[in-house]
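Quick one, tokens below:
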């Protein structure tokens, strides 16, 4: 959760808020892309801000624990907000890659990645 300061120029009065914002914020910035990761026991939800882009220019893939996002706008569409990028986000291998779902709406990409469910049953091992 991002905390907004009432007096932004008075840094020493609320120095604990600076540490709260740095260590407790799930908003990530990596290169050109900004994204937010939310995880629970069943799935991972990633929200990526890709303003000015068209979904036909975006390629999304998963391989070996990494989600790959490629944005290749036409040269005439490239701007400060819409740039070419090729980014990887580590999501782990304990997911069901065949059920990954993505939706692009109003400049935001929503990616839902379901986790695999494992039955933790006790296995009896014979001793030879």
């Amino acid at each position: 959760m991002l905390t907004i300061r009432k007096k932004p120029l008075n840094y020493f009065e609320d120095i604990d808020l600076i540490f709260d914002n740095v260590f407790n914020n799930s908003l990530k910035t990596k290169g050109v892309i900004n994204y937010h990761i939310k995880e629970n026991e069943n799935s991972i939800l990633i929200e990526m801000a890709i303003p000015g882009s068209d979904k036909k220019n975006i390629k999304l893939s998963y391989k070996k624990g990494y989600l790959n996002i490629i944005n290749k706008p036409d040269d005439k569409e490239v701007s400060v907000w819409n740039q070419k990028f090729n980014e990887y986000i580590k999501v782990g291998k304990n997911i069901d890659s065949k059920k990954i779902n993505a939706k692009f709406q109003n400049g935001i990409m929503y990616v839902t990645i379901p986790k695999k469910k494992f039955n933790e049953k006790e296995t009896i091992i014979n001793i030879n």
